[in-house]
Each structure stands twice: as structure tokens, then as C-alpha cells.
Amino acid sequence: MYTVEDLAQTLSQYLPYDQVAKVKRAYYYAEQAHDGQRRKSGEPYVTHPLAVAEILSELRMDCDGLTAALLHDVIEDTGISREALTEQFGEGVAGLVDGVSKLTHLEFNSQIEKQAHNFQKMAMAMADDIRVILVKLADRLHNMRTLDAMPAHKKRRIARETLDIYAPIANRLGMYNVRVDLESLAFQAYYPMRARMLQRAIHKKYGQQRIKDTQKLEDHIRAELAADYIEASISVREKHIYSIYQKMDKKRRSLAEIMDVMGVRIVTDRHDSCYRILGVIHALFKPIEGRFKDYIAVPKSNGYQSLHTTVLGSNGIPMEVQIRTEEMDLVANNGIAAHWAYKVSGTSSMPSNHDRATKWVKSLLEIQQKARNPVEFVDNVKSDLFPDEVYVFTPNGQIIELPSGATPVDFAYGVHTEIGNTCISCRINRRLAPLSTQLESGQTVEIITAKNAQPNVAWLSFAITGKARTNIRHYLKDKQRENAISIGNRLLTRSLNAFKTNIDELTTEQIDQVLANHQLTSLDDLLESIGKGRHVGYLVARELFPNYDEETLITPKSFKVNGSEGMLISYAKCCAPIPGDPIVGSVQVDKGIVIHHTNCPNVQDHLSNPERFIRMAWGKEIEEELNISLIVTYINERGAVANIASSISDTDFQVSNLDIIERGRVSRLRLNITISSRVGLADVMRRIKAVRCVEKVTRETIVGR
Length: 705
What we know:
Strand content: 15-25%
Radius of gyration: 34 Å
Enzyme class: hydrolase
Largest sheet: 5 strands, mixed
Keywords: Hydrolase
Low-confidence stretches: 105-111, 347-351
Structural class: alpha+beta
Organism: Marinomonas vulgaris
Distance between the termini: 72 Å
Mean pLDDT: 80
Protein name: guanosine-3',5'-bis(diphosphate) 3'-diphosphatase
Strand order of the largest sheet: 1-2-5-4-3
Shape: globular
Number of strands: 19
């Protein structure tokens, strides 16, 4: 059984005596605090924090981190306060324990809001001190190792949240060993039958003569390296079972189609030796085209560095070879935890993955500050938790790391928020390309900006990074508020005209009374609410003048549509009004004003309601381009459709779709066309009617839509 003396012996290899003594004192403090408490397995509870400290000692965690690991359940499960811990072990340790305690009861269940809120808490705790999440990961790893004591339904829940949240965080922090252990244990707990069947299949396919073949392969590579005077350690291993399962599941492949089940890791002492070893490996085995990656020159976003190549082994089975230095191997296995190993050894060569992790956590803070709610926050960081990177270059040669599937919009926000907000187009390898193009490693991307440009809501359909999506939503939200206040101002001004006054003439008492009635804090909030349709301008005006004589009210003027109102003025699809049509506005909650044709069947029953429908008119200078549908009835003869389409081909109007909706001797087709005025519509309809085979052209209205 593992004891505190075993822990102290491990710690004495890298920590000074006084710090080891502090860790031992924390153990005895925890033992006394948890006296009488037992785990589900029946063991004394203190065995759990001791095991967590053991895991962190293997990662060379510092003194305060180990002390916090031993005390991480003291605040939550005993009567000891944070103040008492501060007095005994200092503010640093107490802060870490408090941070871990706040994460103790995270339950990632089916309640999306709760799951999102809890994950947000975890991200904020990481921002305060990243050691909090390291203690939590070690805590989760020991819980997974002792999961058999739990009931079946709890096993599945804990395993699922481990796969969804904790393993991806360990991966993002570069902690390969912890991630592999978490994934393997969770996979076996969540899919026990699949795990057993896959393990049997792997053993059947690769298990026979495996030990003998492995030793032979190691000896062969070692001899070739020695002939070139290269010193290196060599290990041959299978990929862990969950990694194989993921490849089979995502790519819909059988075990036989998975290329790199076997792997060789070669660790050497010098940077340049890695490339010499690569040459030896490619001389020994045939490399598979397109399967070489240089993560030394271009490290992964979590700091991982290594050369990867997949070759055909002597038995014809593909195997992945990883080549790295001892320092790279430490960082690859322990990720951000390697930072403390270097710190306590006093080495000046600090791994950059700590800075990368800190940068990532800071980006989480930026996303959290701009997200509207925890659900949006989690949605935006998913791509950052499951990275499969591409590496692209700025025109001056700087490398930008992005998730697989990223587009120039993600790239623009990756460079700088302001570049993303003002981006209008891009060049990929010096050629103009759509902003929705998926980027590939090695491309050079140049973003073209314009001073008055702004994000487009359509970008949300292809931008995938959390930073890009959050900034686009944040900008659009601010812009929507700005538009809503402007429209609300116009609607309230129009309603106040009926009372022979305007907004500037309202008294502070009048405004405060209405704000209090609707629990709003400012006039802008009231105007925004009116602009978004949550409150009606006419009813707000009545509240401002409750004693006004109805008979003396003036009929409000029409609301002018100028085409520059932004996203809170939209056009009904059921009747597709265009400039020149008689129109009426329907005020809808959170949609603003939806404009209908006055004769639209969907508004006829409601026009008598003055609260939600307002008189509207087109502005004189409006040139809004809107889509309408025309129904063309024609005699079905050879070349009829081509003649109809060509009748408007020499105009400025654009046909977006042509769809034959009825075939026969007399056929009908639907033309979707972009029109900016009734004059233009009349011209198009006249041209179509002039085609010899056309019998009738009508504008389509979708009844009841």
C-alpha cells in the first residue's frame, strides 16, 4: 500500500527537504481532517488525496500544488475553513484548494445550461491559477482508476464527462500520458463490450509473435543508428485502444484499414539528430506518401514537438515513427506540467508550452467576456478543445495555428480582432478566394480590409474558432442594439407626434415612471425594446400621457423605409414587397418590423389592431434589392424555357433560381429574381410576356405562410 513515506521518497529526488516536510505536514493535516471518512471501496478517505499527490509527483509538481492536492477535499468535506488553511499553509495553497473545491461537484449531465455553466466555472478557475486544473485532472484520474466501486449509472455518467471534458482539456494542455489514461479508462467504463471486442481483435491481428517481432524491430533500428554513431532510446508500442476506436468510428473504417496501429518512438539527445534519424528510418523502410509531419519546425498549439512519419514495416504493416529529443519527450508526455519540472530543477531552458497554455486560457477569458451566456461560451470553445491543427502563414512569414476546417475569417480574427471586423476578402497563395474557403497547411493567407467594413452574419455559418465566432456575435449584438435604438427612437417619435410632442420634450419624471413600470434602467434600453418589438411605441406614448384626450390625437405619419435601418427591418417572404408597393409594418417581438404588402392575406385580419401594425411608406431614395417570385404559364414547346430565360438576360436583374413546377402541354415555372422597384418589375414582366409561347405572368404570393 502506498504511504506518505513513499511519496516523500519520490519528492526528495527533486524538492528540497523543507518543502518535502511541508507536503508531509499537509498529509497528516488531511488525515486528521478526514478521520472516520471512507471511500465507496471501504478504504480510509485519505488514501484518495494521497493517490492524487502521487500522480502529480510523477509530473514533478511543485510544493504548493502537491500540498493543495493533499488538502483538495478538506474545505468541501470537513468543517475546516479557507481561513484556517491560509493560517496553516499560506494564501497560495488555500487559494488552490478553494479553486479545486469549487469544481468538486461539477456534474456534466443532460441539462445543457448547467453543464455549460459548470464548464465556464472551470475555465475561470484555470485563468486564476492553471495548477487548479492539474490537481482536478489528477483527482479525476484516480477516480477513474477506482470507478468499479460506483453504481453502473454513475460509472457511465462519470466516464462520459471524462471523455467530453477532462480528456480534451488534458490534450489541450499537452498532457499526453494523463489524456491516454483518462480516455482508456473512460472508454472501458462507458463502452465495456466494445472495448473488450476491439482489444480481442487487435490481439488476434497483431498479437501473435508480437513480443518477438517487437524486439527484433528494436534491435534492427538500434543497430542501424549505431552504425551512424547516433545515440537514441527506442520503444515499440501499440496505439492506445480509444485512439484506434475513434479513427474507426469517425472515418467509418474497419481495423484492417487503420494504418498506424503500431508505433515506434525514438528519443535522442540532440535536435539535429532527429533529422539524421529520419533519414535512417526512410532508408530502412518505405515511407507512405503524405504521412510525414514536422512538428519540430512547426509545434502544435499545445507545445508538442516531434517528427512523425508512417512507413511500411518489414511485415507489410504500416507503423508510425515518432522522433524527438529528451526535452521534447518530457513536454510531449507531461505538457504544461513539464513547466514545474523545469522550474524546480532551475533549468533556464523553459518549455514554451506553458506560455501557449496561458495564452489559450487568456483566449478563453476573452471568449467568456463576449459570450451572451454559458451555452454560447461552451459552443465557441469546442473547436479549441478538439484541435486538429492546420498551419498557415501571414504574408511576412508568421505562422498562425488554426483548427482543421478553419477559414480566412478564422485566420483574420487569429491575427487581430480588428482585422477580422474589417475584413472584406482574401488572397490565398496570392489568388483571390472566398472567405468561406477551408484552409490547408502551408498556405499563405493575406486579408484585405476596408475601413468601413463590418462582420456579416453569414460568417457564422463557416467560421469555426471560438475567437472568431464570439467576436462576430459580439459585434452583431452591439450593431443590433444600435439599430434597435435608432428604430425605437423613430417609432416612439412617430407615436408622440400624435400627442403633439417629441422625445426631447419629455420630462425626467415621465421617463422614469415608464422605465419603472417596465423594469428598465435607461431611455436607450426602452428605445431598444421598442425597436425589437418587445414594447409598442403607441402604448408607451399612452403611458407617457395617461390623461390625454383620445379625441384630440393626430393620426401618426407613415414610417419611412430608407433601406439603411439594418437587421431589424425585414421583408415578409409571404408577399415579398418591393419598393413602390403599398406596405404595412408588423411589429414582432425580437424581429423588429416585418414589412408586408398591404394586400397580403396574412395581415388582413390584423390591420385593425393599431398596436402591432403601423402605416409605412418607401423613402424617395431607396434602392433596396429584394427577391420576388414570378409564376410564368407557357406553352411547352422546344426551347421555351431557354427563350423565357434569355428574354431578361440583357437586363440588370439577376435570376437566382428557375424551377419548373408543372409539366404538360401548358406548363408553369417559377422564376426567382432580384428586383429593386415596381418599375423594374413591370419591365421584366413585359419582356417575359413578349415571348411567343408565354400565356401569363403573375407575381407569386404564398398564402398563409
